[in-house]
Amino acid sequence: MRTLELNAGGESLRLSRLVFGTGSVGSSIPPQESAALLDLYRAMGGNCIDTARMYSNGASEETIGRYLALRSCRATVAISTKGGFPPKNDMHHSRIRPDALKSDLESSLRALGTEYVDLYFLHRDDPGYPVEELMPFLDGLVRDGKVRFLGASNWTAARIAEANRFAVSNGLTPFAISQIQWSLAAATPAMWEDDTIVCMNDAESAFYRQAHMPVMAFTPLTRGFFSKAIAEGIDSPALETYAAFKTPLNLARAERVHALCDRYNATPTQICHAYLTSGSPDGLAVLGAKKRAHLEDSLAGADLTLTAQDLEFLCASDAR
């Protein structure tokens, strides 16, 4: 499987381009089935498991922790987790504070059965909280050996840039990676009905290119929008579930995905993942597969690389 090398502060970490997402692990995906999916993922060269303290109310991390112990594979797996998520009944109540983050991280380490995590993402941002107070605390987590690389999840490029300017100028650990909503389908937070997430757009993309910062894309398939559009047709009533995403641009992109599927003998899933992992910004895709067949589909296209011409074709703005 193709990989990406993350570098910061003299540390390096090689991550598989396809990341195993665990939002449903421990809840709708029971432990035994989760283990079988993880076995398949690792057998195909995958090495990064992405979770969060709030996934399945902590059961995701606990399930992963049991799996790591059962397979004795902690040394060969990169663990990515996230803390600081707001209360679910009040998404604008910030928990981006040292006490909350410290509590979340300690809970994560206990659940995962590990002394450190490879990637630690702040799961949301509080734009009003000074980076001058936050970054020294985060740097301490790295210096204490509990975190190898810092990440920002659903932070705007402007805030990441502000935080990293302060960190670098003061000899502190900067953010090395970001996690936002990114897929071939152009989307906005309003389309997802969640104004606390950050979606890739031209301004965000320009920052990541300039900063050479990799992006771990969540919901990279837009819940199967392109697969459904190609299987059912762009005028099908079945696409009403995706009404918010049925823009002229996205429908035109569905036709282009179909064309590349024919060219590469690939599935829409494989083309959409390759779109994220083939160009710039440097991308990784978080797999949300709940079924073995879906995971097999994704992994079968793990080494598909699109050309610059393919990427330009997919992103052409001449929507009908």
TrEMBL record:
GO molecular function annotations of the record? oxidoreductase activity
Name a Pfam family for this protein.
Aldo_ket_red
| One GO cellular component term | cytosol
The keyword Lipid biosynthesis is annotated on this UniProt entry: no
Q: Which SUPFAM superfamilies did the record assign?
A: NAD(P)-linked oxidoreductase
Ranges for domain NADP-dependent oxidoreductase come to 17-312
Which UniProt keywords are listed?
A: Oxidoreductase
Tell me the protein's name.
Aldo/keto reductase
